[in-house]
Structure formats: structure tokens, C-alpha cells
């Protein structure tokens, strides 16, 4: 347009005064024709995907719709492109335009105990509706429709919130009773040696919560976090105390072969916590006994039984593995190891026979 005006100015400068008026009218006519032609455009009207085309010089898109007798509903979404921004030269060179009309679709969304009335364009999906509503579908939530479905007028979308609540409960594990035979007591008597302790268990439950309504608890794990220890009882049934077994033949409570016997000697009992050591470096256990190593060398295998057989006491096989002041001073001959302190009390001071079964050769 600027080039045309420049050429016109050059021509006018060369004309004589009598021709100026004629040239002016010619130039004005050419400008009007050019301006009118520039305002003619091809307008595409897209209504919900159905397109029509109109050639028009109208600058107002709404007048174009009025001329075509197209009515716009209050909630319809109208998008206009290709029309000028106003002004005399605002539309020059714009030969194509589009008016897009998307019919409004009214839907209802129910979520979080609220209802949302949402207006969207035809062709929009459930996901579009949720985005407009500011609603997020979380991992366990579910919809009554597919989120990719296109919505229709009057649709009801239900977003159900689902959560899983994890709870834990600690419970006591009751202790039981353990019975062990012994010859420390007689006549079938039962004596409590030690109290145990209850244990604990941790139960984990999962609970489904649907829109704030809690469902039934479901147990998902049951873990013992602390084992119960049982009450320990001994029953006087004549059982041998020591678990050791050296394989000698025992007849009527007396070994058939042995190297020597120390008869009617003093025997006491002692106890040490689990993991305690002995004079020989071994860990203390039932069957290991304390002696005077000058009399009975360490490592000697023995059989120990009550001097008075009527008492029924049988300590059984024993190994010389420890010592103590009472043995070294001669006040006591042998100190018998027990698993509990109360068994030491039950042992008290006893008169026993100590059979030497095998003395270390070195």
C-alpha cells in the first residue's frame, strides 16, 4: 500500500495544475477499490465440527452470524480468528477468518461431599471436566465413567474417594509353662523354679475408607516382636540332672567300670548367668562341675550320685571344668552347676559318691 501511495505522489508532481483534480479523483477511486477488495474475506463458520464458508466484506463477526441467522446460546464458547483489531487499515491483507462455535454442555460432578455444576464445550472429555473443577483422581479413587469419554448434556460424574488406612495394635503374648524332670525332689512334687515373661506381638491392619466411611479392618501382618518366656517348673520324677552322656554302663545307679570312687563327700550347687566362663575357659553348663584340680584334674569324666540311694538324687555324668575357693580350701569336695539359682537352693548340701570314670592321660 505504501508503494502505491509513493508512486502516486511521483505522478502528481509531474502533472500540470489543470490535471491535478482529475488525478486526485482517479487516485481516490483506485484507493477505494483497493480498500474494498482488501476487506473481502472468506469466513469459515465451524459449529461443533460442522463447517460452512461465506464470502463477506463485513468486519464484525457477529454481523456475519446475524446475516446467516446463526444464534449463539449464552453458554456457547465462541472463538474468532482472522478479523481485524479495529481501525481503518486494521483488516487489510487478512483474507481468511474463522468463527468457531462450540455448544455448551452442562454436567454435574459429585466429589468430596460436594456437587459442581460445570459448563464445557461439546467434545470435551471427563478429564477436561475434572481439570476445570480442580479435581484430581488419586491412585485408589475411581470414577463411574471412563475419564476419556466425551461428556454429554446432563451427565453426572461421580468421583469416589478411596483411601487405605494402616493401623497397628500391640498385644501381649501370654507365657506358658515348661516342666522338666529332676531328681532334686521326689514323690512327683512340682516346684516353680522361675517366672517367665509375657511376650508382645504387633498386628497390622488395613482399613479401606470410601468417601470417609471406614470399612472393616483386615489383618495384613502379625509379627512377634518379643518372644514369651515360660514359667519353669521341675517335677520330681527321678530324672538325671546332667545332659552329658559318656556311654558307660550304669546298673542300679552305679557305673559297672570306673577308676576310683570318692564316697560320701560334700556337694553343693552353684549358678552363673548364661555365657559365664569357667576356670578351663569353657562356658558354664549343666554337667560341668567345680573341683580341686589337684585332687581331680580338669577334664576328668565322672558319675555323681547320692550316697544315700534312697533319696533318689542322681546328678549323672559330669566333667571337671571349674574350681572355687571352697574346693581349694577343702571345705567342699564338688560344686555342681545348675541352670537356675533355685535349683542350687534345692540342692543345698548333699552327700554324694563321685565315681572317676576317666582321667585325662596328659
Strand and helix layout:
Layout: H1 2-14, H2 17-39, E1 41-47, E2 50-56, H3 61-67, E3 77-81, E4 96-102, E5 104-111, E6 114-121, H4 126-133, E7 142-143, E8 156-160, E9 162-173, E10 177-182, E11 190-194, E12 199-210, E13 213-226, E14 231-236, E15 250-251, E16 254-255, E17 260-270, E18 288-290, E19 301-306, E20 314-322, H5 325-328, E21 334-337, H6 341-347, E22 350-358
Give an account of the 3D structure:
- The structure is a single chain.
- The chain is of the alpha+beta class and 362 residues long.
- The protein has four domains: 1-39; 104-160, Ubiquitin-like (UB roll); 164-233, Resuscitation-promoting factor rpfb fold; 240-358, Beta Barrel (Barwin-like endoglucanases), CATH 2.40.40.10.
- The chain is 17% helix and 41% strand.
- It has six helices and 22 strands.
- It has helices spanning 2-14, 17-39, 61-67, 126-133, 325-328, 341-347; strands spanning 41-47, 50-56, 77-81, 96-102, 104-111, 114-121, 142-143, 156-160, 162-173, 177-182, 190-194, 199-210, 213-226, 231-236, 250-251, 254-255, 260-270, 288-290, 301-306, 314-322, 334-337, 350-358.
- Strands 17-21-18-20-19-22 form a six-stranded mixed beta barrel. The protein has a four-stranded mixed β-sheet with strand order 2-1-4-3, with no helix packed on it.
- A hairpin with a 2-residue loop joins strand 15 (250-251) and strand 16.
- It is rod-shaped and about 155 Å long.
- The model is unreliable at 86-93 (pLDDT under 50).
